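Troubleshooting log. The previous structure file for this entry was overwritten by mistake, so regenerating from the original sequence record. Sequence copied from the archived sheet and checked twice against the printout by T.R.
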Amino acid sequence: MAKLQKELPNAKILILSPNPVANGKMENRLGLNYSDYIHASEQVFKTNKRDYMNSKEEIEKKLKKKI
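Regenerated output below.
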């Protein structure tokens, strides 16, 4: 990230959340699920004052409209 900021000081860098998975409730061997990672990553970006967009929420809204 530092290299990008140095070489492209006027660039706007936006990090997106991972795309939703078929079963967001499924846990990995650490006992974490997709939502856990979304919330944790969002906190990291807020703490570091980085731009972050939770695309998961927008994708889910669009999918609900189609049903």
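Helices lie at 2-7, 34-47, 55-66. Archived copy saved in two places this time.
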